Amino acid sequence: xxxxxxxxxxxxxxxxxxxxxxxxxxxxxxxxxxxxxxxxxxxxxxxxxxxxxxxxxxxxxxxxxxxxxxxxxxxxxxxxxxxxxxxxxxxxxxxxxxxxxxxxxxxxxxxxxxxxxxxxxxxxxxxxxxxxxxxxxxxxxxxxxxxxxxxxxxxxxxxxxxxxxxxxxxxxxxxxxxxxxxxxxxxxxxxxxxxxxxxxxxxxxxxxxxxxxxxxxxxxxxxxxxxxxxxxxxxxxxxxxxxxxxx
Length: 247
Hints:
Strands 1-2 form a two-stranded parallel sheet. It has about 250 residues and is mainly alpha-helical. It is built from 14 helices and two strands; from the N terminus they run ααααααααααβααβαα. It is globular and about 60 Å long. The protein folds into two domains: about 5-100, Alpha-helical ferredoxin (Fumarate Reductase Iron-sulfur Protein, Chain B, domain 2, Orthogonal Bundle), CATH 1.10.1060.10; about 105-245, no CATH class.
């Protein structure tokens, strides 16, 4: 980590842990949590978050494997009326869990959508067929822990980046830089094309720099070091445009 990160991380850790004492056990987070409403195996963000955090110690094991069922969507933090950093608490606890037990294969695969996208795009047809086949999904469930009934996105077979490189940009004095994300690039490039069309209709020249994953899936899964590498690469790609004043 850089010197700035060395200074910031302890502050963020203290702020995050301090927020758990603001929890009033209203269970609003559990009401909104998509996972606690889907399976009794996940006791809910209140339990695995601020409630369980009080029993975690730097020198002890993380007490609950139920953390693995948290998707890291962050809805709990958004809806908390007391400002408790529930999702952040869960991510930190999950990082400790993986330090002790190792990151599951499922998390390594699903948390790197750009890697899967680059590999699957040239053979999207067979891959989409395989991911929709019950026998194949059964094998994936046993090997990687992805439930056979869990919905998975379909690869588009083309990328938004490829389209953007070929798309002629209009000449205008207004410029905007577009960060599209992995989902648009590999699964729904048409959404990116429509976003560009709207921006161009409003008089903007749209720049689409080369870009990789933002690292958020890794961060949500508690894999902070790999996430930092993605973030730094992305920042290096976008920073020159920000320095020029482009939004």
